[in-house]
Automatic annotation (TrEMBL):
Catalysis performed (reactions): 1-(2-carboxyphenylamino)-1-deoxy-D-ribulose 5-phosphate + H(+) = (1S,2R)-1-C-(indol-3-yl)glycerol 3-phosphate + CO2 + H2O
Record carries keyword Cell membrane: no
Protein name: Indole-3-glycerol phosphate synthase
Domain Indole-3-glycerol phosphate synthase: 23-229
Keywords from the named record: Amino-acid biosynthesis, Aromatic amino acid biosynthesis, Decarboxylase, Lyase, Tryptophan biosynthesis
CDD domains on file: IGPS
NCBIfam families in UniProt: PRK00278.2-3 (NF001376)
GO molecular-function terms, A-Z: indole-3-glycerol-phosphate synthase activity; phosphoribosylanthranilate isomerase activity
One GO biological process term: L-tryptophan biosynthetic process
UniProt pathway: Amino-acid biosynthesis; L-tryptophan biosynthesis; L-tryptophan from chorismate: step 4/5
Organism (species): Methanococcus voltae (strain ATCC BAA-1334 / A3)
Domain of life of the source: Archaea
Keyword Amino-acid biosynthesis recorded: yes
Amino acid sequence: MINFKRQANAIKNFKENKHDKNDPVNKINKNAIIAEIKVHSPKYGDLLKNRKELDILKIYEEAGAVGISYITDKQHFNGNFKVFEEICKNTELPVLRKDFITTKDEIEKTAEAGASTVLIISRLLKEETAEFVDFAMSCGLDTLVEVHNKEEIEVAKDTKTSMIGINNRDIRKLELDDGTVSLTEKLANLIPKDRIIISESGIANLNDLNTVLKYTDAALIGTSFMKTNFETQKEFVKSFVRGKYE
Ligand SMILES: O=C(O)c1ccccc1NCC(=O)[C@H](O)[C@H](O)COP(=O)(O)O
């Protein structure tokens, strides 16, 4: 029995059943998309625009996302941990907490909130990355270890993480760069195939998506989904979930 609350399992299941015409869900849901409820972008400002996070959650669920991401960092992304808890409570989908985690207390807090996955940034935790992954796993969480260059991939490979995320943006620039999906093309082949690979950030359209999905198992998308207005958001996200797969 697949536990869909576990992000790594959900992505594997999505991939394995992609071509199964008898599976009523995966017949139409072709691409594994982690959809981010992103309330603020350092570059574009307010992205929520008077909408409610839980309404966006519903739209993402109905559009067939494989998981949900939420940034709890307040300083740059205007995140709110209480909202994160509400999101976890109100969905059967696995939820990823994105933040600049540097303490084990924050990992425990993430598990207590009912999240599936916690982001572990190798650039931030350096030689402590493996220890933080082990700790998160002992709390029952999946881990997404984020990398942005070859050296960070080496760090990620030395951990037990099930998922490695290539961030197409340089997080040090706090999103004032647009990111480039060519980074995923460049780095994905350096990651062992026994890990689930996720391309994160800067995926703006179906061309970008098709590019990253040639190399990865899933894509994490926030800004372009949030910039679409409420009326057309479901169809827009659906177009990414069902998009042409080469
Ligand atoms: O990625 C990080 O290291 C990170 C850590 C803490 C807060 C935010 C962080 N990055 C921003 C994002 O997570 C992006 O919003 C996400 O990857 C979606 O990207 P985009 O589609 O370009 O909005």
